[in-house]
Amino acid sequence: MVSLSTALLLTLSTTVSAYKAGFSGHAAKYSIVPGFFKQSDNSTDVKTFDYHDNLGLNDNLTWTEFKQQIDDLNENAEEGVSYKVIYYGRHGEAWHNVANDFYGDAYWCYYSVFNGDGNMTWGPDPYLTPNGEAVAQNNSVLIKSLIKDDFPLPQAFYSSPFTRCADTLNYTWYDIALAPGYVTPVFKEVLREQIGGGTSELRRDRAYLEERYPGWDFEANFPYNDTMYSPDWDETNAGMQWRGRFFLDDMFQTEESTFISATAHGSIGAERRKIGLHSSST
Ligand SMILES: *[C@@H]1O[C@H](CO)[C@@H](O)[C@H](O)[C@H]1NC(C)=O
Ligand SMILES: *[C@@H]1O[C@H](CO)[C@@H](O)[C@H](O)[C@H]1NC(C)=O
Ligand SMILES: *[C@@H]1O[C@H](CO)[C@@H](O)[C@H](O)[C@H]1NC(C)=O
Ligand SMILES: *[C@@H]1O[C@H](CO)[C@@H](O)[C@H](O)[C@H]1NC(C)=O
Ligand SMILES: *[C@@H]1O[C@H](CO)[C@@H](O)[C@H](O)[C@H]1NC(C)=O
Ligand SMILES: *[C@@H]1O[C@H](CO)[C@@H](O)[C@H](O)[C@H]1NC(C)=O
Hints:
The chain is α/β, with parallel strands linked by helices. The protein has one domain: Rossmann fold (3-Layer(aba) Sandwich). The protein has helices at residues 63-75, 95-111, 130-147, 163-178, 206-212, 237-254, 268-274; strands at residues 15-24, 27-32, 82-90, 156-159, 186-187, 217-218, 259-264. Helix 5 (206-212) links the parallel strand 5 and strand 6 (217-218).
């Protein structure tokens, strides 16, 4: 069995990036706009970087100035170029993370293909642990504390179709954006974790998600069942990275909002590597 990049899965990391997209030929060319966030600067030590410090916004900027500068960039952008800010949220601890730690990587290769061990259940689609829920609730407190500073709230919310991500989105944004009815989150298949490596990567069907998250939307053509997972197939790193890129293509081609929230998995780091930038989530 291919061993997955488990180092990416162990801790929650949340990051914000301002992206620039321009077209050359048929394919969009993406870059991260430097100067706004510490995590976008190569000199930032990703091991000590802590997003709790104002989500990494550079000390010489206020949120009001940041929002103004993004608006100015878009107003003055040349033909074919646009700018978007993506707030990536990553789920905290879920049961497959606990089980992986409990058994260790070598034994986990064996156990991960089962649904559980009678003590813990890690598949299909494991839930967040109470610790994982607490991290998302704590992020909610952090974001609420920034609102008085004019923090630009996301205008659109996307989630991986796994409950550990949708619950993270819910606990983070519930009273800020969901309960007031200000936005409807949308499930997007492309935001799921690297496929393979056990039952934790098999998702539930659409009816389950509709019942657990009433009112949430699904992207067009969202498959009812999980058609991508197969017990004897592991997605390559390159495949996963292309999904990260497809997400950006989708955002820049079909999403009108400038400020976007995406709640996903450790593979959010892969998406940043794909466009040649270091990742604060590794
Ligand atoms: C703010 O600080 C960052 C990081 O040091 C720097 O890249 C950027 O140019 C500064 N911006 C201004 C307006 O001084
Ligand atoms: C909770 O949030 C505070 C402030 O944002 C941060 O300092 C602390 O490390 C967080 N605790 C956990 C468990 O995430
Ligand atoms: C059950 O799982 C927990 C970790 O969640 C572990 O600490 C405990 O030892 C396990 N018990 C058994 C009987 O395997
Ligand atoms: C969403 O969050 C709210 C507020 O914390 C909570 O009452 C509700 O049960 C959560 N829903 C899910 C599916 O976790
Ligand atoms: C989803 O999977 C179930 C169980 O395998 C099957 O009975 C059902 O027909 C499938 N539904 C669709 C829409 O493919
Ligand atoms: C930051 O590092 C990446 C990957 O090593 C590199 O492609 C990029 O050019 C660097 N950016 C700057 C501003 O030095």
